């Protein structure tokens, strides 16, 4: 469902993107080309800051927002997800938050008030808040990071992890094509 927010902002979605009919896209949201938005995802830009303004939620080209993901923002802060990034099933991305290009965020992870550098991998059930994850970092499953100091024990992404992230993007890019073809059948 595509709908306006109370300010009257309406989502802008590239014609080459695929948004499942059960997803809710609300307000000042920009979805770029070849993005996959899966079933029951919610992307909602509707809160304003103290001046009555809001920054958008931006989903970069060739990224995928999988089933049940929630993306929202506190007080109209920016949420930006870079190109070729994957936000896996039931994760929450709550702004302010900037996620770089080629990032993988695993199932049920929560990101809030953080920046995640290009090429980073955040595995399943992790919580990242109040920090800046550098480029190409690997956050293991069930890790909780609450400050930059917590990142001292974190290692770099291995080639195997990078290949996995790329394969998720490729699989979802193919889903965009397949579902777009199916839309023509109904």
UniProtKB/TrEMBL annotation:
Q: Which PANTHER family match?
A: CARBON DIOXIDE CONCENTRATING MECHANISM PROTEIN CCMM, CARBOXYSOME ASSEMBLY PROTEIN CCMM
Q: Report if keyword Signal is assigned.
A: no
**Stored Pfam families:** Hexapep
State the protein's name: Carbonic anhydrase/acetyltransferase-like protein (Isoleucine patch superfamily)
Native organism is Aestuariispira insulae
Q: Which InterPro entries does the entry mention?
A: Gamma-CA, Hexapep, Trimer_LpxA-like_sf
What are the GO MF terms of this UniProt record?
transferase activity
Q: Which UniProt keywords apply?
A: Transferase
């Amino acid at each position: 469902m595509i709908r306006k927010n109370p300010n009257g902002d309406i989502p802008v979605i590239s014609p080459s993107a695929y948004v499942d009919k059960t997803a809710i896209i609300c307000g000042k949201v920009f979805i770029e080309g070849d993005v996959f938005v899966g079933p029951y995802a919610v992307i909602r830009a509707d809160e304003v800051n103290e001046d009555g303004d809001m920054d958008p939620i931006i989903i970069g080209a060739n990224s995928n927002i999988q089933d049940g993901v929630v993306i929202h923002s506190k007080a109209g802060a920016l949420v930006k997800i870079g190109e070729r990034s994957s936000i896996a099933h039931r994760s929450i991305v709550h702004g302010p938050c900037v996620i770089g290009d080629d990032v993988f965020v695993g199932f049920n992870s929560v990101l809030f008030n953080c920046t995640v550098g290009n090429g980073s991998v955040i595995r399943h059930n992790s919580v990242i808040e109040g920090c800046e994850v550098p480029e190409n970092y690997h956050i293991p499953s069930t890790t909780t990071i609450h400050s930059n100091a917590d990142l001292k024990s974190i290692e770099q992404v291995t080639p195997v992890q990078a290949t996995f992230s790329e394969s998720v993007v490729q699989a979802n890019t193919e889903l965009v094509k397949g579902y777009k073809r199916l839309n023509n059948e109904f």
